[in-house]
Amino acid sequence: MTQYSVRVTSLRLIEDDLEVGITIITHQNRPDKLKRAVSYKEIKSLILLVSDSELKPQQTRKKMQAPGQFNPINVNAQQKQLPPPNRSRYRKFDIYRDVGQFRFIDEHAVEVSQKDHKTFRDLIFHLVYSRNLQSDLEKARVIFRWMTSKNMYNISFQDVPKGSPEEVLVSFKNKKGTYARIFETLCGYLISEKNMPENLVYEYDDFYFLTDPEQLIYSHWAQKQQWQLLSRPLTLAEFEDLPLVKSYFFKCGMYFRSHQKGVVHTKKGRIALTVGFVKPTNFTYKIVFSDNCEEMYQGQKLKNFALQETGDNTATFILRAPKSGSYYFTIFAQLLTGDVGIKNVFTASAEYKVIADQHSSDSAPLPNCSDSNWGPGLPVHQLGLEPSNKNAVIPTSDGRVYLEFKKNRPAYLLCKLRKPGMSDDELERCISEADQGDKIVVSANLPKKGEYGLEIYGNDPAKDGDTYTHICQYFVHYAPPEEQARSFYQEAGDRYMRGPDQAVVNGRYNPDTAGVSQQMANFQIKGGPGGQGDVDFDDLPPPPPEMLQQQYLYGTVPDSRQQALYNQQAYPRGQGVAGFTPGAGEVTMPPPQKAGVSNIPQSSTPIQVEKRSMGQAPPAAPETFKLIPVKTEQEKSPPPAPVAVTHQKPSLEAMDQQVLNTVDDHAIQVSKVEHRNFKDLVWDLIYSKNITNEIEKVRVIFRWLATKNLHEIDFGNVDKGSPEDVLMGLKTGKTTYAMVFAGLHSKIISGFAKGADYKPGQKFTPGSNQHSWNAVYIYGTWCLIDAHWAARRIIGKQAQTEEFHYQLDEYFFLPDPHQLIYTHFPDDPKWQLLERQVTLEEFENMPHMKPQFFKYGLEFVSHRTAVIFGRGEINVRLRYPAHRIIVAFNFTIQYENGDEEYRGVKLNKYGMQESVGGIASFRLRLPERGSYMLYIYAKEDTPENKDNVYAQVCEYKIVQEDVSSPEPEPFPPCPYTNWGPGSAFFKYGLKTYQQTAIILTRDGKAELQIRIPRQMQFMAKLKQNGRSDTDLEGYCMNRCVGNTAYFNVTTPGRGEYGLEIYANDPTTEGTTLYHVAQYIIECHEDVKAIPLPKLDPGYLGAQPKFSEFGLNTLSHHDPVIHLETNSLEIQLAYSQEMRVTANLIEVDTNTNYPDFVFTQTQGSIISFIVSIPNTGFYKLQLYAIPSSDPSQNLPGVYNYLINCQKVSKPAYPFPKQYAQWKEGCYMWHPKHLNIQSQGKVVFKVLIPNAKAVAVVAGDEWFHLKAVPGQHNIWEGEASVGGGNKVTLNASYGNDPSSYATLLEYS
Question: Which residue intervals define the domain KY-like immunoglobulin-like in the entry (predicted)?
């Protein structure tokens, strides 16, 4: 494909398409213009191609110095007439849609900002020209991003001459310069196609790059009004009247609905300010006195005198001023992006100055609730609830309040009343909530007139466990109707009647709706709750004058919304993603019991552990030590019950980590020795170390059981029924692990368990799959423990004794009952410890999950039952947390009888796995009807996982009831069942825009691009069932262009192909290449493809010496060139004198055509003029070595593959070039001679260091003359013809009779 330089010169909208005028610069540097209608998709692809294809980091010179021949010219100093300032026909999104297209440019700019440069010349070369940026948009962007990343207070240069660009750049830190002046200076040195060869943390605001004039006018007023670039420029008075608006205002799609001026006045101390928004957004606000910026009044924050209500695409703020005077009212916003890792902050968006004419007659702080936003919003909808009252205010004249929340999935509510001067206990008796199946009813009888806050807390049983989170609050006004009619909230009574079209006042331009079309302004977005608790702005540090962070410039504040009411661990909300989380419950549960808060004592201090040897004598218990059972059979233990929402669940998190380590270590040491009796064991294990904390007691027993070799237990005298008898029974199988805890304030629980011999879908009957475990009563809470499974992790699929080994599994120490229910079903349902008990039938249908399923935080997305019934292809999907990008998956498929092959092919080949966007997919196309087993495995690819071992996370039984026709084929025969990028892909720092493992062809062709951080070697293979690797070699090709590796596939026909990619770092890994990725190429077209030549891996493009010698491509950056003609000129740039040569090889015949390549040098550019004799594929191999190197062996530096599709003119060999010609010589003419014809020919050449130059035709000499004023250039006429040999010769020494032959014409 021919390489072009592309510049968009005109744009015109034609219906749904965009007509684009494009100037294309070909290898001959002739601008060809074309104009056609193209779609936005094509334009986006073109922009990405042009903006990204030239972004290769050129070989970085030491200290980032510009090459000697680089001489930037200041176009600002040339007094050229600039185009007049006309209003643009295009908006920002017409120029670029997604800031992500500048990702690699931005990364380069940030990298450059972190380095110092000796001169401005070095800086501009490093920033712009080293990356060979082509378009003015790219150049403007890289300067913008550098300026927003660079610490301008620390910039310095070696010399700062007066009037120089260095002086302009350093003037900023001296407060004599501006960013605008610096930007102009940098842009002044950008000339198209002329120069082509610590303590601060900075964040940039992309809003100010190519800002729409209608938005910028809110903060920037140009004195020369034509530079406002508006249809009607604003006067200074109009500009001063605008509200103070920050960039975040437009990022949230906000617009003004009620007040379009910056200074507003109250009426009788009240005002309602309303803004609209078109993107899901949260809001909060801040109020201060304008004269002293104080936000407190008589011990109350001023914000407590305002009510915020967020409705459908509007947010209203109603103020009842506590006193007359001036206030600053700042609105903060938080865009709900849903992105993980985004700072949970609110950012200042707009600010009013409010002048209160008097204090409001009903001025008082609002009830003290958790949030600053009133009314239902996004969290209510996310919980699947529909409230009967959608307004923030609930007026009542009789003190009765009634609310309904319809449910579309299981959810629970808790409600609280708040009123100044009344305690929570008094108000608790006045409110109730009742779950009526499909709805929850909230009712209240208010005790006296006044203002109340009604807070609603919600719980999603599928995700939140025991945590209730604040989801909304209402302002309840208990007063007679006439008092309600005079209340402050009536100020906003008609706010929903106004639309953004009313922003045009008196027929004048008003920028309030800038960037928001009428259609967008009326677009309804569900949600936008305030959800913001009191934000303490006093905690923010004062902004340093040099700090450029947005949170200081625009007053960003932390989001301190109250996340949870009872539990110390808040569960995240607001993602709005439907998912099934095992262990959080999935069915409706009644409201949990309300109990007092139980505080778990802090862990004790770490214990002293004595190291012991196997067989060492243990300490004996003192005579005074007596064992007293905690309870007898006659005594009743506390009844089983779920953990109340007000209780803290006992867990390892409640133990200090250092204490936990010493307790575990002590248990391990005790397990090494044998004790005479049970009394000595208990003394040694617990009482000798004075362990009194109940969690620590349970832990030390649990850890000892999980470590002790039970076959070594032996007591001297064993009475029947004694504790010694119980322990001895462990090694004979007469007792269970659960019985060891008997007498230690615990309960033995018996029931069914999904163990090693369990099969998904299996029915449980008495006597089969019986198991026992424990419930331990710890600090008022029943907790579960399975010491047997914790100590006996199973190897293999069958539960045979020799397959057990001793390894601790922490999961079974105090597991969550909501998770343990998937594998343990107690005979007595009460010991499920769940709010809603699970039936045996539900237990049998639950998926079979292993502890690692919960360890990795996995969720089911698609199939939630143990047995899958399939017809055709099956796609099992799991969700993994986005922060666990290092989780890798695998799977195996078997027939239910254990067979793993179908007609000699592994069943695994009928499945593929890929992970995209937090979803792990397992795509199966099973070959025949029948029953199968699917085992899914996962691992964390971390340094801690040294063994690189996958652990099983879940398993399914699949009943394939029908298969597609024709019979499904295995996936392509690549080495792994995981498709897409592998772990090595990310270890090498590779990146790609390809999101999925499936790539579809177009016209039988597909291309994959991978960004590379440094020079690397790649190899690609194409695979297909039924074809050999040799047959497919010519249909896959890879090469590196700049910082991108291209993989091109031309499929030989319809079908499914596997693309394997291997790579290495040649500087450290030699010639061994490693598997980094594999993709599936799907071709659904009938095509007839011509295979490409078979080339060695790494043959195409730059070779190792290319960058080492300081060479760069100028004309053809892609090593694959498709020609519609049979001639071309390739140019390279060099930074030191070079000796070069080239060879042209026809691929099919392996014939060399060295005389069809003409090499010459001018300035810092080496040219290779190629004339191709026939159509077909040719290899052009370039060789070079520095002139200072005496070696006669020139290494290969760059290889091209040329596809000549047409011979447009006859091809003649060039003159034979001798060694000295290739040392910097250049020929203007003639490059060819017809030596059979008669006549004079004008020669013009550049020959460095020549003393004399002559053309010899036969025996006749024609001396060329040096051109005056042009160094080393010679010109003259020579008579040629008659079939005489013609040579070009030069004399370099003192002997004028000694000439060296440079060229010989044939």
Answer: 236-367, 388-487, 840-971, 983-1093, 1101-1215
B/e letters for 810-827, b = 16+ CB within 10 Å, e = fewer, are: ebbbbbbbbbbbbbbbbe
* SS3 category, 799: coil
pLDDT reading at 487 higher than 60: yes
How would residue 1224 be classed by pLDDT, with cut points 50, 70 and 90? confident
Distance in angstroms (rounded) separating the CA atoms of residues 825 and 827: 7
Whether the Cβ atoms of residue 855 and residue 869 lie closer than 8 Å to each other = no
Mean pLDDT of 489-510: 45
Lowest mean pLDDT among 332-346, 438-452, 701-715, 766-780: 332-346
Whether 684 contacts 704, CB under 8 Å: no
- Residue 408 tokens read as 């579309």
Amino acid symbol at 543: P
Residues 395, 1260: Cα–Cα separation, whole Å: 115
pLDDT over 90 (residue 365) = yes
Q: Which residues does residue 923 pair with via DSSP β-bridges, in sequence order?
A: 875, 912
Give percent above pLDDT 70 in the chain: 75
Q: Which tokens hold the place of 675? A: 């004790």
User: Considering only CA atoms, which of 1236, 1082, 1224 is closest in space to residue 1162?
Assistant: 1224
Phi-psi region of 1115 (alpha: psi -120 to 50; beta: other; left: phi over 0): alpha
Q: What is the 3-state secondary structure (H, E, C) of 659-700?
A: HHHHHHHHHHHHHCCCCCCHHHHHHHHCHHHCCCCHHHHHHH
Residue 24 and residue 464: Cα distance in Å, rounded?
A: 59
Q: What is the CA radius of gyration of the chain?
A: 40
Q: Going along 970-1093, which residue ranges are E strands?
A: 980-981, 991-992, 998-1000, 1005-1011, 1017-1023, 1036-1041, 1044-1050, 1055-1064, 1074-1083
681 vs 675: CA distance, rounded Å:
6
Task: Give the closest residue to 755 by CA, choosing from 724, 714, 792, 799.
Answer: 799
Residues 393, 492: contact at Cβ < 8 Å? no
Give the DSSP H or E segment for 996.
Answer: none
Copy the structure tokens of residue 104: 């690699």
Cβ partners under 8 Å of residue 852, min gap 6: 938, 951, 952, 953
Label residue 77 by pLDDT band (50, 70, 90).
low
CA 705 to each of CA 708, 795, 1092: distance values in angstroms, whole numbers, following the listed order: 5, 19, 66
DSSP string covering 566-613: S-SSPPP-------B-TTS--S--PPPPP---BPPPPP-PPPP-----
- Residues whose CB is less than 8 angstroms from the CB of residue 732 and which lie 6 or more positions away in sequence, other chains included: none
Q: At what angle do helices 678-685 and 694-707 cross, to 10 degrees?
A: 120
CB burial class (10 A; 0-12, 13-18, 19+) of residue 298? exposed
Whole-Å CA distances, 883 to 336, 450, 918: 19, 48, 9
- Decide if pLDDT at 61 tops 80: no
SS3 labels along 545-564: CCCCCHHHHCCCEECCCCCC
333 touches 281 (CB < 8 A): yes
pLDDT at 958 over 90: yes
Indicate the helix (H) or strand (E) that contains 1169.
Answer: strand 1165-1171
Contact in structure between 1115 and 1130 (CB atoms under 8 Å): yes
Tell me the three state secondary structure of residue 830.
helix
Q: Sign of the CA dihedral 153, 157, 162, 168?
A: negative
Q: How many CA atoms lie within 13 Å of 314's alpha carbon, on the beta-carbon side?
A: 22
Task: Report the C-alpha gap between 150 and 109 in whole angstroms.
Answer: 9
| 3-state secondary structure (DSSP) of residue 223 | coil
Four-CA torsion 92, 96, 100, 105, nearest 10 degrees? -100
- Decide if 940 contacts 852 (C-beta within 8 A): no
**From CA 1099, how far away is CA 1179, in angstroms rounded?**
10
Tokens of 233: 């420029």
